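Handout, page 2. Input:
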Amino acid sequence: MMKKLTISFAMLVFFISIMILSPFSSKDLFAADGDSLFSTYKVHTINIRFSQPNYWDSLIYYYNQGLEQYMSATVIANGITFNNVGVRLKGNSSFTHPNNKKAFRLGFDEYVSGQKWNGMKGVHLNNFWNDPSFLREKLHLDYCQANNIAAPRGNFVRMSINDTLFAFYSLVEHVDKTFLTSRFGSSNGDYFKAVDGIGTGADYISDFRWLGADSTLYYNNYELKSNLTNGPWKKLLTFIDTLNHTGDIATMLPAQMNMEPYYKTMAIDNVLGNLDSYIFSGRNFYIYFKPPTNKVDWIVWDATLSFGALPGGPLNIETLPITYVGSDTGRPLFSRIVNNPALKHEYLLALCRVYNTKFTTDALFPKIDSIVNLIRPYVYEDQRKMFTNQQFETNVISDITVSGRRIPGIKSYITLRRTSIQSQLNALGIDCSTGIDPNGQETVNTFELYQNYPNPFNPSTKIEYSLTKQTGVTLVIYDALGKQVTSLVNKELQNSGFYTVEWNGSDDAGNSMATGLYFMKLSVGDGSFESSVTKKLVLIK
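Output:
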């Protein structure tokens, strides 16, 4: 017994040390939480049973109070019964959805400590407000995941109330401590949520403008979601002060913020036409002060109006400038980047990475078709939806006009947007496929290795990488001592594109490897020149 306890303690220390020392972000530390809900395209079933006779009036009353008060209900999710689940209504513009198709928030642990649905303490049921295609949120969140961005995962739900079909919803992961741990390996830092104040009369905006040295001036503009360290507001003010007042933004901003994920997130918002975000509306995001450095990390939130569906946004969304920002003075966190040559260059490099191999009709159209074929029966049976079945079918492919306002089609948007972005890059002299601009400056890496998923893993994991030009490729797994375990790709000449390789945790001889830390090394080159990158991965048995 003592020997077994000693081994268990050693294993515990080993994995705790990995978590503490891990530089991983985004998908790096995903385990099993939520995988059965989000890892494949699926329509889940949720039945909410209220015992209160006037439950709907109570839900509306609590929403209007603005206190995020929950009601207790029994929730049957995919056939599993959860008692005393917290249920409330949510949303701003989405609350105006016709036919009482309100958005919901479910808190599985609101009244029962530790209660979870597949590791999720809470989920959101969004109502596809102003999205005839029923695709926008899912496509945007999946695109973020594919680019290793900290964003919630999404899927679909057929929801009933008191055993009667109610409507078809989008299922979205909640941003909480579970989320922070899975993306950043830690939930011990403070995090803020952008306020949703537009349209409330006060129009508070989380814009990162300097309002003064008194932290109380910012209380209405940012929602503190935790209070785990000393001085969370001081951290926020220091960041805003630096952003607005430093003369050396190219040095000082990267010292306080993890820039690469932010660049890529802003680029994705631009490429996908998601203007209900920081660059335009100034909302729908979180920031996390990740310990121990307390650098700011950006978290995506609410992409329901992506692909140009935001009412009141720029009319020609397909030709949006790739450095677009709604206001230079009103959105300093992005305007200072695109107005600084060094930071702008880094942003354009990131835009190339998220655009070049993934934002293509070949990559996206089959995905769209698969999702549409899955959800079509559920869209058709939804009697509370905002648009007709024909508008759903049309908007997947092309624009529709509703009350004089154009809503871009998903496929037509992708085609036109790619053409516009390519034209803008050409005008700037940037070739994402070669990685060099006319001045000889690197604009994009010729390859990128992404963190494997899941990680830690058992029994297998997927390793993804992208190439911007034809090159020789080698992908090798090493153990913690540097000994080669297996060669997954061996000096293959591969064309530009996105590649996925699966490792089953075995060596070249087919022997299963032991629990531990391993390394994956991607090398590219033509023989005369070779470049490589290495990342960690963890096998658990």
